[in-house]
Structure formats: C-alpha cells, structure tokens
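Entry 12.
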Amino acid sequence: MENKNRHGISCDVGSCVFNKNECECTADNISVCCTCSDPECCSETQCKTFKSKEH
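Predicted 3D structure (tokens):
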C-alpha cells in the first residue's frame, strides 16, 4: 500500500519530530545528503532534516 500525504514524502523513522503517524513527513522542507564526504562513494543517503523527539 502506498502512503499518500500532502508532501508526498513517506518516512518510517518514528523517532523524528516531523514524523506523523509513523509514516508521514510533516517538515516544510527536507534536505538529503550523502553519508560520506567523497562524492564517488555516495551509495547511501541520510535525511539532514531529522530532529529527535527526545530533544
């Protein structure tokens, strides 16, 4: 089943303050980056917009 939301961004990181119902990203904008500094090895990405609900 495909998740539909106003931003079109699905997220399964329940510990993020922008995660609604453990499937919808409610951030006004998102930033995604490589997990390494060398552009030639960029096989994984991470969400730089993530903010923990704990803080």
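Annotation: The chain has a mean pLDDT of 82. The radius of gyration is 13 Å.
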